[in-house]
Amino acid sequence: MSASEHARTSNAWPFAEARALWDDRLKAKTPDKGYVLFETGYGPSGLPHIGTFGEVVRTTMVRRAFEALNPGVPTRLFAFSDDMDGLRKVPDNVPNKDMVAQHLGKPLTAIPDPFGTHESFGAHNNARLRAFLDSFGFEYEFQSATQMYKSGAFDKALLRVLEKYDDVINVILPTLGPERRATYSPFLPVDAKTGVVLQVPIIHRDLAAGTVVYEDDGKKVEVPVTGGHCKLQWKCDWAMRWYALGVDYEMSGKDLIDSVRLSGQICRILGATPPMNLTYELFLDEEGQKISKSKGNGLSVEDWLKYAPAESLALYMYQKPKTAKRLFFDVIPKTVDEYLDFLAKYPTEAPEAQVNNPAYHIHHGKPPIEPAHLSFGILLNLVGVAHAEDPAILWQYITRYAPDATPEKAPLLDRMVKHALSYYRDFVKPTKKFKTPSAEETAALKDLRDALAAHTGERSPEALQNLVFEIGKKHPLFANLRDWFKALYQILLGQEQGPRMGSFIALYGVPETVRLIDRVLAGENLAA
Q: What is the CATH number that goes with domain 439-521?
């Protein structure tokens, strides 16, 4: 059975989405435009955050699944930035707020960059988006609303909105309050004098001329709806974009369910079929609140990539897209180790299992083959007991434990070593709290120390784990052996949970572990 045949029966959600797109929306036929268009949208009013990138990661997974199911059918992915939106408030997490405040109401691409690195605020945030997408190796085409409006690329669609103005209004007005309903127009003129995107009533429309008229200080002002002289209110803008570009697939968050429905109605009024949509749940911060670009709560992309490989971030996006998840620093170690487990399993799995493995979707069907050697969790423990700040120190332990592992031969492990040093320094070390052993615990520790010192047999993780296990069984205090291992974590590592002790001792070294226990028995402070 071929890979595409296995994909047709896969229960992995990207394949389920791809099958529905081809069978239900496209009716098993390539669109007239010659390709299937996937789109992701980005509102660059605040700095990019992981939720934005998650949309691109997930959409790419569906795109690659679609290509696996339908080889030979061309696809494209547009990463579209709504950078012509008028800025309504100053984001909390930008410098030079007073300067930005002077330009409220203007398109993001007409506001000076508060960071001083690009020609505009919109360009700065667009660059942040592209930098991440490029670093991850995504294949996409960046599209700017400003460029599309001003170049005339949207002109035909904008004239279509003007033609269907009354029908569009009749869909939108019932969703608005009385005050907003009285002044609403889908067209927002851009003031020629101030550059501000105006929310003003439209008092006249001229379809033949392609213009709208509004009042300014008692004077009537006529502007074309084309050429960037007007932009659309965003729900109508979204529908117009689907119509103009022929978008076939676009994801969106749970908070946009009503907007998807409304924009879909408008898209049909314009004469097109709305794209297939997947509604994903929102990420939550440490306090369980929705992550916001303007607040800057939760994690940034740069944060995650400082502490973990990018592949682990892709895994976090893959897992349960329709379930709300906390997105904070404490999810990183577990996610990294889950990624390593999936990667290790892939080469030994049958083809029908491989297409359900997240590693398949993270790496678009071609996961790298590289032994993990060590988990991220055990690396963090090694950093702590070795008091290491230099990757070279950790590699001394690693090469003794796994002689075939070197930074050159194990690039993933080498990245993890650097990430572990950073994560330990910023998040683990400040929370360390070493327990002073009781008399009974001290006796058990001494027995463990003596057994390790006298051990002349195999020093594999399994053999050392059995040794630790047997010592614990000799002491009545640890009738539940979980209490024995918990005591070791608290006393030797300063934490409530930890790795398999046999694996840790094998990595750290038997003589080194003996010396570590000696320090405890001598009453030394391991935190020092």
A: 1.10.10.350
Side chain identity, residue 321: P
DSSP string, 122-171: HHHHHHHHHHHHHHHT---EEEEHHHHHHHTTTHHHHHHHHHTHHHHHHH
Distance CA 250, CA 15 (A): 15
- 249 touches 59 (CB < 8 A): yes
Model pTM score: 0.90
pLDDT at 378 over 80: yes
Count of residues in the chain: 528
pLDDT surpasses 90 at 279 = yes
Do the beta carbons of residue 251 and residue 77 sit within 8 Å?
no
pLDDT for the residue numbered 526:
83
CA distance 204 to 222: 9
Provide the pairing of β-strand 204-206 with 249-253.
Answer: unpaired
- Compute the 3-state secondary structure of the chain and give helix, strand, coil in percent, each to the nearest 5: 55, 10, 35
Asked: is 3-284 a CATH 3.40.50.620 domain? The reply is yes
Which residues 6+ apart lie within 8 Å of 289 measured at CB? 297
Provide the angle, in degrees to the nearest 10, between the axes of the packed helices 411-423 and 391-401: 130
Judge whether 317 and 14 are in contact, CB under 8 Å: no
Element (H, E) at 187: strand 187-189
Number of alpha helices (DSSP H) and beta strands (DSSP E) in the chain: 24, 12
Domain range summary for the chain, segments of one domain joined by +: 3-284, 376-431, 439-521
Cβ atoms 238, 210 nearer than 8 A: no
Average pLDDT score over residue span 407-434: 94
CA 344 – CA 391 distance, rounded (Å): 24
Q: Which pLDDT value is given to residue 3?
A: 61
Q: Is the dihedral of CA 464, 466, 470, 473 positive or negative?
A: positive
**523 burial level (CB within 10 Å; 0-12, 13-18, 19+):** exposed
- Spatial distance between the Cα atoms of 447 and 437, rounded to a whole number of angstroms: 14
Rounded CA gap, 125 and 305, in Å? 18
pLDDT at 298: 64
Q: Taking Cα atoms as reference points, which of 247, 256, 276 lies closest to residue 18?
A: 276
| DSSP 8-state class, residue 80 | E
Bridge partners of 249, per DSSP, are 38, 276
Around Cβ 277, how many Cβ atoms within 10 Å? Answer: 16
* Rounded distance between C-alpha atoms, residue 168 and residue 239, angstroms: 10
CB 65 within 8 A of CB 15: yes
Tokens of 329: 């620093």
Burial 284-322 (b: 16+ CB within 10 A, else e): bbeeeebbbbbebbbbbbebbbebbbbbbbbbbbbeebe
**What is the Cα–Cα distance from 52 to 54, expressed in whole angstroms?**
5
